[in-house]
Design goal:
15% strand, 30 helices, 755 residues, alpha+beta, 6 domains, Hypothetical protein af1432
């Protein structure tokens, strides 16, 4: 009886919790500028609540709490209205219950049904179990965006809530979800102008992948908060005084660089936390005197600031006159504070700030009558993606990388000879620009005149360049073009033409090969093709056909002679199979069933694998791309041969694997006892002086007893720098070595790097 009573009390408590969450959602919605369509939202809530009744999330809370939380993000943090809130409440109904899209349409109308259908198609994350499924789902997501941008905005809200509650998931699931969030969702949020959400997605992903590093930076930010507050107060005091004189309504905020951004800077620049100098930035948000004067007010504030502090000559960013393609507008200026520190100041109107935080969704707030948004720049981006989708990629990972080229891109502004403005990604080349204008211009491009000076195809463009593309009918697409194009459109078009050309050569090569075999009296079968392919150093038959077709391989007497030689015996091959060794001669051979220790081992991806000395020696492979050592944050990846490859979690290859093959990721832990040695590379830099190299080697070899494997040191204009390869047991050894080397006078920087 007591158990029944406590169960009933628990159910009642859950009902109260659900109702409170929904009441908070309605209260938030009523404080927005959207039309007050509370009835339809309540109807969607009741429908979803009934559909998910009795279902729990992994954390133990009622499932309906998730759709309510997603709807709250959609309303409060992205700024969407009743249609989107309804869709957020209903987004899992079709996938997880017996209700269909038709049921949704009958009850809520075609628009809600269309968006819910789009969300259902891309449910379960972008990525499936296989690479091909993953690419297909990603294509669905991008195509659905072009139907209604709200689909992807709701999907990003869904992912944000999943990341906020990721703690209840298993470690290998955490790595997979965090990986694909960093790989796709954060860049998408950035591209759609959702800066605040993008930052939180990056931080949460980083927190789950590198908890120790996250905590270290978090603690250092907390420890230096008082010092930053003091700098902020002193820096902004004269600015406030000047803005008050101008009669502007404004507020000034301190913007602290995100933990993930700080870590990335530390990693890329190889500097400690203390040397990341742009942790603090200042944001001025003002109310325009009237909307017609909004841009003038921005520049008036800029002029006022430059009278107080000296601006950095190369650090003015004018996103006011030329907004980013995601709608972002602001003036960025970097000023020299009185303490000798450069501080970036962002100047925005309230409207600009809304667009910066809520992206495209903020346009609804500023449209007359709350209608659909003006998304011209977004449409341009979507059209580019559609063109890429029309040309199917043979490799799913290549496809995602191609799309990502544009997702991550910062922008420059380039002019045509007639003065038309074109937005291009940063680092775009002349060839990228040619393809952006027209495919024919790209395929026949031989160079360009940039600011009336002749430049090659590979020339990188700068903001403000005026570009005239030069073409020739005789020009054809070259494989090396792929080395210097940066835009998805150009890469896709070049790939398409190269594949089309390769197919023509392949056909020609097949015919020539058939004639050769026929004329030589040799039987044309797979064994003969394999032999000839290997003889000419190719991996596949198709590569051989193409090489013959384009004239790079000419078949002759040497090829005939190869077939007249006696066939080599197979016993050597069999012997190597039986031992299962992976040597150079047999690196592509598959081991026999009794030869690969990992093949017979049942790997449970829910377990955390212990990386012991014995396992490292026998079963696991240390990834050559990132060279993990004990103490590094790592994960395991089960490859096609059922081997476990150990990667650092932040390794770029691992990021792809997490987002592409999440079901093969295993959580791993080191369990070693300083018995195995691993090679690491230390980068060292300082001021050159007599005997410095001797001091460095003394510390490493004599004091610490560490073996040096390779030394590459040089000096240039008084600067001493180089790389030292050492044998160590774990990360603690590396830390000790770095700390001891830093004690040497004139050594300014010591850090572990990849080869």
């Amino acid at each position: 009886m007591d158990e029944q009573l406590s169960l009933k009390e628990k159910e009642q408590a859950e009902e109260v919790m659900i109702q409170q969450a929904f009441d908070h959602l309605i209260d938030t919605y009523l404080h927005t500028k959207h039309r007050k369509r509370v009835e339809i939202i309540t109807k969607a809530f009741n429908f979803a609540n009934q559909a998910h009744k009795g279902v729990k999330r992994r954390s133990g809370e009622p499932y309906i709490m998730h759709p309510i939380a997603v709807a709250q993000i959609v309303c409060e943090e992205i700024g969407l209205g009743s249609t989107s809130i309804c869709c957020a409440l209903l987004h899992d109904v079709v996938e997880d219950t017996d209700y269909t899209v038709e049921d949704i349409e009958n009850i809520f109308g075609p628009k809600v049904a269309q968006i819910v259908d789009g969300l259902t198609k891309i449910s379960g994350g972008i990525f499936g179990d296989r690479a091909s499924a993953q690419a297909e789902n990603f294509k669905k997501l991008l195509l659905t965006m072009s139907d209604d941008i709200r689909v992807i905005l709701i999907k990003i809200a869904d992912r944000l809530h999943n990341m906020r509650t990721l703690g209840s998931m298993l470690p290998n699931k955490q790595y997979k979800i965090a990986g694909e969030t960093l790989y796709i969702y954060a860049p998408l949020a950035n591209r759609l102008g959702l800066n605040k959400i993008k930052t939180e997605l990056e931080n949460l992903s980083f927190k789950y992948e590198h908890p120790d590093e996250y905590k270290t930076i978090e603690d250092k930010l907390a420890a230096t908060a008082a010092e930053r507050d003091q700098v902020f107060r002193e820096f902004t005091a004269p600015i406030r005084e000047q803005l008050d004189k101008m009669g502007l309504k404004y507020h000034i905020l301190a913007r602290v660089k995100s933990i993930y951004s700080i870590w990335k800077k530390m990693e890329t620049k190889h500097v400690p936390f203390e040397e990341v100098y742009d942790v603090l930035a200042v944001r001025i948000i003002f109310t325009p005197r009237n909307m017609d004067e909004e841009l003038n007010d921005c520049f008036d504030i800029y002029v006022a600031l430059t009278k107080i502090y000296k601006p950095h000559p190369d650090r003015l960013r004018d996103w006011v006159s030329h907004p980013k393609s995601n709608g972002y507008q602001a003036l960025h200026v970097t000023l020299m504070a009185n303490n000798g520190q450069w501080i970036e100041v962002q100047i925005r109107s309230e409207r600009m700030d809304d667009v910066a935080e809520q992206g495209f969704a903020a346009h609804w707030k500023y449209k007359e009558g709350g209608g659909s948004e003006d998304q011209g720049e977004l449409d341009k981006w979507l059209r580019t993606i559609k063109e890429i989708l029309d040309d199917p990629q043979p490799d799913a990972i290549d496809f995602l990388d191609t799309i990502k080229l544009n997702l991550f891109a910062s922008e420059i502004f380039v002019f045509t000879p007639k003065g038309d403005l074109k937005t291009m990604p940063q680092n775009a080349t002349v060839l990228d620009f040619a393809f952006s204008l027209h495919t024919d211009l790209g395929t026949h491009c031989i160079g360009a005149k940039v600011n009336h000076k002749l430049v090659p195809l590979s020339h990188k463009l700068q903001s403000g360049d005026q570009v005239e593309v030069l073409t020739s009918k005789a020009q054809r697409v070259q494989p090396e073009w792929l080395n210097f194009v940066t835009t998805a459109r150009a890469r896709a078009k070049i790939d398409f033409y190269l594949r089309r050309e390769a197919k023509a050569f392949q056909k020609k090569g097949e015919a020539a090969l058939a004639d050769f075999f026929d004329g030589s009296g040799i039987m044309l079968d797979d064994a003969a093709l394999d032999k000839l392919t290997h003889l000419h150093g190719f991996h596949t038959h198709d590569e051989l056909f193409v090489a013959i077709g384009n004239g790079k391989v000419v078949l002759g007497d040497a090829d005939r002679d190869a077939f007249r030689e006696k066939q080599s015996k197979n016993w050597k091959k069999l012997l190597s199979f039986s031992f299962g060794k992976d040597n150079k001669e047999n690196k592509d051979a598959k081991p026999a069933e009794d030869s690969a220790p990992v093949t017979d081992k049942k790997i449970n991806t829910k377990e955390i694998l212990k990386l012991t000395e014995e396992a490292i020696s026998k079963d696991y492979v240390m990834a050559p791309c990132c060279h993990p050592i004990p103490g590094d944050a790592v994960l395991g990846y089960i490859d096609e041969n059922n081997r476990v490859i150990i990667h650092k979690r932040q390794c770029p290859v691992a990021v792809k694997l997490k987002s592409s093959y999440g079901n093969r990721i295993i959580a791993t832990q080191w369990d070693t006892h300083k018995e195995l040695s691993f090679v690491v590379t230390i980068y060292i830099q300082g001021i050159d002086c007599v005997g410095l190299l001797n001091e460095v080697t003394q510390v490493i070899s004599r004091q610490l007893g560490v073996n040096i494997r390779h030394l590459d040191i040089g000096t240039n204009d008084g600067i001493f720098e180089g790389k030292i390869q050492l044998y160590v047991h774990d990360v603690d050894d590396v830390r000790t070595i770095c700390n001891n080397l830093k004690q040497i006078q004139n050594i300014k920087q010591v850090t572990r790097v990849e080869d």
